Amino acid sequence: MLRQFYSQVVRVSKRSKADFTPRRGGFTFKQFFVAHDRCAMKVGTDGVLLGAWAPLGQARRVLDIGSGSGLIALMLAQRSGDEVTIDAVELDEAAAGQARENAAASPWPQRIRVHAQDIHHYAQRHAAEYDLIVSNPPYFEPAVACRDQARHNARYTETLTHEALLACAAQLLAAQGTFCVVLPHDIGAEFERLAQQSGWHTAAKVNVSDRADTPLHRVLLALTRRETPLQAQALAIKQADGSYTDDFRRLIADFYLFY
Where is the Methyltransferase small domain (predicted)? Predict the structure, then answer.
């Protein structure tokens, strides 16, 4: 779906001040540009879904674990007010540097802080600080090594297992906070099971499919440390004719250039 950016020159919504043309090496959204040519993992639908959906509520302090290009941090900055600060933690130095540049070039440079470090070390100094934590984490089990070490770290769970991610989030999250992830649907089911075993509760879940009649392929999860009624829903991205569904249009309307 995001390939449409490369083939269209479109007018920005009335909220924006200028027209934008998609540029090589990144993506232009309505209010910001994300360069990703120095990042192992590029801008993709998973990050867009999480950034548009994660429930901000009354959050004042937000953390993005494994920020990559800074896409999700930027989307959350756009969705929130000036009182909200966002920390983006990224292990890879090159990606962190590019995320820092993307934040500096955005309308919210004072609200986004990028930290080039391991989340395990970061968690030791920032316990119980965050109202909302988001992550588009690695999910491949270690297998054949990738030639690009940065891409390997971004895709495989060697540097951040799901058990370790849950433990770090539990350490970093405030008592009433929410932890949100996006994962492949089958892996998300196992992640949810692990979370429940370690004291998490699922507050919200969105099962994502390409179309209503195709298998589920992604899941968005919102986890809390307190028991709360589950809000579950389904999201189909496209209709039978290939056009976007109304639900998906509403979700990304503030971000995609062609809405």
Answer: 58-190
Sheet order of strands, 216-224 included: 112-116, 85-90, 61-65, 130-135, 173-184, 216-224, 201-211, 231-238
pLDDT, tens digit, for every residue of 84-122?
999 999 999 999 999 999 999 999 999 999 999 999 999
Q: Would you say 211 and 41 are in contact if contact means Cβ atoms under 8 Å apart?
A: no
Quote the CA–CA distance of 179 and 156 in Å, as a whole number. Answer: 21
> CA–CA separation, 248 vs 236, rounded Å?
7
Please, are residues 50 and 59 in contact by the beta-carbon 8 Å criterion? no
The residue-averaged pLDDT of 29-57 equals 95
pLDDT of residue 17: 32
At 160 the pLDDT is 87
Q: Is the dihedral of CA 171, 173, 174, 179 positive or negative?
A: negative
Buried b (16+ CB within 10 A) or exposed e, 32-69: bbbbbebbbbbbbbbbbbbbbbbebeebebbbbbbbbb
Q: Which domains does the chain have, with CATH numbers?
A: 40-242 (3.40.50.150)
| pLDDT of amino acid 220 | 99
pLDDT at residue 21 greater than cutoff 90: no
Task: Let me know: does 172 contact 128? Beta carbons within 8 Å.
Answer: yes
Which H/E stretch holds residue 221? strand 216-224
| DSSP-derived secondary structure for 20-37 | B---TTEEE-SS-EEE-T
